[in-house]
Design goal:
The structure is a single chain. The chain is 61% helix and 13% strand. It contains 6 helices and 5 strands. It has a 5-stranded antiparallel β-sheet with strand order 4-3-2-1-5.
Length: 245
């Protein structure tokens, strides 16, 4: 009885945490906005000629800029996780994961840029250098990025779903491959065939011919040979007609 009460209490605590989680993210977002406004105002006051205490304003600007980075990161991570929890029962695990990754990327980039601006770091030069770096990284990781974009196409086009029994046919796969789709990820499609789970790159799946597994054809029935009583059986001697001895 004591164990049952502990389990119920743990479940109630978990439900309360899930309900309060979005409020924590919203409060962190509001605190991040307030910190950005205070940091900007303090930085502007420190640059004026008639400032009373320039060092204090600079200290406030730097401290609130750091707080913006902390609160912004917390809000981004919390809102991304909550969006995945809300969308997963409706659109599936794969689509909810894409939304979570998109919120994380956009939120992290926005938080980083605003934080650098609050610290008066020249973002323009960093963006130019980052663009050049991205070009070289994109060329080096062309195959991996191709699998990511192919995964997005598969998730939105939906030629098949998790649990479907399909046939993939392509030269890169070595011919035809039949099995059941177990997972559609960002870079790989997990495919169960012949008792084994294989991970196939999304780009190869996108270039393959996809279709349902055709039904198995039954063997044609055996035709009696006209001489024996059983189909395909050994030949039996036929009785002779009655006649004079």
């Amino acid at each position: 009885m004591h164990d049952v009460r502990q389990i119920d209490l743990s479940a109630q605590v978990e439900r309360v945490k899930r309900k309060t989680r979005p409020w924590k993210s919203i409060i962190a977002l509001l605190l991040a906005i307030a910190a950005a406004v205070i940091s900007h105002q303090a930085r502007r006051d420190s640059n004026t000629f008639f400032t009373v205490n320039k060092t204090t304003d600079q200290f406030i600007a730097a401290g609130t800029a750091a707080l913006f980075g902390i609160f912004g990161s917390t809000a981004t991570y919390g809102l991304a996780g909550k969006s995945r929890e809300l969308l997963e029962p409706k659109v599936g695990t794969s689509h909810a994961g894409i939304v979570r990754y998109a919120i994380l990327i956009v939120g992290a980039f926005t938080t980083l840029v605003i934080t650098l601006e609050l610290f008066t770091v020249p973002v323009g030069q960093l963006v130019l250098g980052g663009a050049l770096t991205s070009v070289f990284v994109g060329i080096a990781a062309q195959q991996a990025l191709g699998n990511v974009f192919a995964g997005l196409v598969l998730l939105f086009a939906r030629p098949f779903q998790v649990g479907d029994a399909i046939r993939l046919q392509a030269g890169a796969l070595g011919g035809a491959l039949e099995g059941i789709v177990t997972d559609i990820g960002i870079t790989y499609v997990r495919f169960e065939a012949e008792g084994r789970v294989m991970s196939i790159p999304n780009s190869q799946v996108l270039n393959a011919v996809v279709g349902p597994i055709p039904p198995a054809q039954d063997d044609p029935p055996a035709v009696p040979d006209g001489r024996s009583g059983t189909p395909g059986g050994p030949e039996q001697p036929q009785p002779r007609p009655a006649g004079p001895a």
